[in-house]
Amino acid sequence: MSIISVDNIFKSFNGRQIFSGLSFEINRQEMVAIVGKSGTGKTTLLNCMGLLEKVDSGNIKINNQIISFRNRRHFFRDIAGFLFQNFALLENETVHQNLNLILHDTDKQARALEKVGLDKNILVQPVYQLSGGEQQRVALARLLLKNPQIIFADEPTASLDRENAKEIIALLKGLCHQGKTIIVVTHDQTILSEFDRVIEIAKLNNSV
């Protein structure tokens, strides 16, 4: 059963048509990669599915329902989680302070960090002192605390070395096996074999 249904969406930006009648579905507990050449709208598509950007026309259904752009609060609170290339952490705050934005429970924070391969002692460290791999793991731990149904990840391995990139994808795959739906925009061809399905925008979109 699909958790996301993209139905005949159109989207333009600065007078350029990005999507013309784009349609596809993503199933529950599926790990999907979205790929395409630079400028084909990979991140825009992710943002539209994640209700961060509006489509010009067409529908995006989440759990078989159209969620209006105006009424996104429940979607952001209970359904969606986001993982970004730049980690989206407060660099001058500690890991503990960053995780407090989701949940004020040090024990649960420590358990979430352990699940992503980090020691609880990292809680007291400022984010700016962490490596890129550690910061992306903290961002993943933040998602574990939020416990979303769908994880939208925009180039989550782009700032990481090969070893850390593989480990982040393995962690996302583990979350998929636990029941999450994972949608990843990536240009990294070396990780595509880890996905259940690869969506190539050029094969679906009349504007590309």
TrEMBL record:
InterPro entries: AAA+_ATPase, ABC_transporter-like_ATP-bd, ABC_transporter-like_CS, P-loop_NTPase. One of its GO terms (molecular function) is ATP binding. Its EC number is 3.6.3.-. It is an enzyme of class 3 (hydrolase). It comes from the Bacteria. Residues 4-208 form the ABC transporter domain. Keywords: ATP-binding, Hydrolase, Nucleotide-binding. Pfam families: ABC_tran. PANTHER family: ABC TRANSPORTER DOMAIN-CONTAINING PROTEIN, LIPOPROTEIN-RELEASING SYSTEM ATP-BINDING PROTEIN LOLD. This is Peptide ABC transporter ATPase. It comes from Streptococcus suis. The gene is yxeO.
